Structure of Nitrite reductase small subunit NirD:
Amino acid sequence: MTADWLDIGWLEQIPVRGSRTVPVAGGEEIAVFRTGDNQVFALVNRCPHKGGPLSQGIVHGHSVACPLHNWNIALATGSAQGEDKGCTPVVPVKVSGGRVLICRASTLKAAA
């Protein structure tokens, strides 16, 4: 079975060390991040601590700092780092031909 991928645009449309959001069913959002070394990650746009919008946080290395309480979330795993505990769901993402694609099945789970 092949994954069903949703094309969300060109890699260059995501700022380096920044993000963009993609709305999904149920009012949920996926935050798609681009790191300084041009790797791309996608997480549900909700900090596990108080639900802060991770897409508005500061990307440093392969982490994002939540804008509400500065929790650091690993982009690859969605896990809070340091002494903080919690996890944000990760959405599979890939770049193909300069286009960024997220796994449609995962976006449906995020909305559930």
